Amino acid sequence: MMMQKFILEHREEDVRKLALKAAHYPDIDLTYALQQIAGWQTARKKIPSWAAVDGIVYPPHLSMEQCSSEATARYKQQVAVGLLETNTTRTADSDTASCLVDLTGGLGVDFSFMARAFGKAVYVERQEHLCKAAQGNFKLLGLNHVSVVEEDAVKYLHKMDKVCMLFLDPARRNEHGGRTYAIDNCTPDILAIREELLEKAQWVMVKLSPMLDWHKAVADLGEPYVHQIHIVAVGNECKELLVVMSKQHVSDSPTVFCVNDEMVFSYGPSIKKEAYGAETNGTSCSTTLAQQATLTATLPQQYCFLYEPHAAIMKAGCFETLQQQFSVKAIGANSHLFVSTDFIEDFPGRKFKICAISSMNKKEIKAMLSGASHGVGQVTKANITVRNFPMSVDELRKRLKLTDGGDFYLFATSVNKHTHILLLCQKLSLSTP
Predict the structure, then answer these.
(1) pTM
(2) Cβ neighbours of residue 382 under 8 Å, at least 6 residues apart?
(3) What is the phi/psi pair of residue 366, to 5°?
(4) Going by C-beta distance under 8 Å and a sequence separation of 6 or more, which residues neighbour residue 231?
(5) By three-state DSSP, how is residue 38 classified?
(6) pLDDT tens for each residue of 408-432
């Protein structure tokens, strides 16, 4: 009781400064208290609904660093609900028909959200301290229909009954603590137990590193069994790659969901085996884009708006599909920037109004920055982005003598191999300008 009171009273304080005052609190296990305070401070931003519940036990820093955010955990819950709605398998055992097993429990953030979609849920974790924390945390979170099992994931898989869904977030660090990304380097090895996973569950959801190429992941896991791919970004930063597999729902190609916060773009590509693992990260349509990219110096008159796809779409590489669905045009084969004559409010990414365009000619650049070529005034500062351009942001900023920030956005890109352009833009809201 005294420990919890101390944590509550001091959880807003600087942990490092508090650690220097150990002599003032002889009756407090300060090491444990500081771990809980640091954990709560991380959870306040990363898992706010947990931080709102007093008494939650937080593990050491590494586990907090590796755990899912609330945003990505809630998204997994939505995916699980969607899969349950398509559940066509009926069994006499209602627990089996609506049962989730998380084989790699960890802190239990993903589990705590996904479990709410199921009638029964089992958390499996081999580390004793995480299991003890999970027992108490789940009760505080009102998850009274879940059970905690201290067991190795593969051993539990061997002896468990069939369930509706299995979830795995394999460890992506080696024995030396270094990061690993390849599926077969993770623990447990999903490839080694894939067949048993698919036999034991109607749906298998695996969380993988966002560094992986999703085409390669599909090829490794077995194309017919991969039902969905979810590329999940938060705040325009890719956080994770989710793969949903099923032996009962085989298909020629998976549906791909590109998610950034509340913005979702999905498509069902016709995947070509020869494209798997390509260094183009899925941009097998680059030749097509190159043929279509014929923009000229008349760009401001022809196209008024510029679009930058969000991070998950960039990762997916579905640029040709994006063009077809939204009737936008690629500036260049590898620019990953698009333009249109009319404003497209629901484009999945950032949207800008083009104020002016310039080549790298000094006179054109001067006219653009002075305001002579547009009616929005002199430009002394800008947010600069370079895409398929021979200079870095710092190099270009130095050359243009611009400071960072402000209301202008300057995109530097290439129409083709030899034609480099600058697009001066202003960011647009969701409403039509």
Answers:
(1) 0.86
(2) 402, 404, 405, 406, 408, 409, 410, 424
(3) -60, -45
(4) 210, 214, 238, 241, 242, 256, 257, 258, 259, 312, 315, 316
(5) helix
(6) 999 999 988 788 999 999 998 755 4
